[in-house]
Here is the input.
Amino acid sequence: MNLQIITPDKTVFSGEVSVVTLPGTNGSFQILKDHAPIVSTLGKGTLMADKQEFTIDGGVVEVVNNKVLVLAEAVL
Here is the structure.
């Protein structure tokens, strides 16, 4: 599936991944291939994409048709 991590300033990551773990505001959760469409808020924490780690300062995630779009307030 395709993952894009975007901040107001730039695109931080864009590429194919097999699993994404996100810091939701009510706890962390994972997105796998063929996940149902979802929109969720994100809290401050670690976003893991396969074996890469990004520390984000909150934001929103949208998942549709194996495309994961993370709009992060900031990547620390």
Remarks:
- The two ends are 24 Å apart (CA to CA).
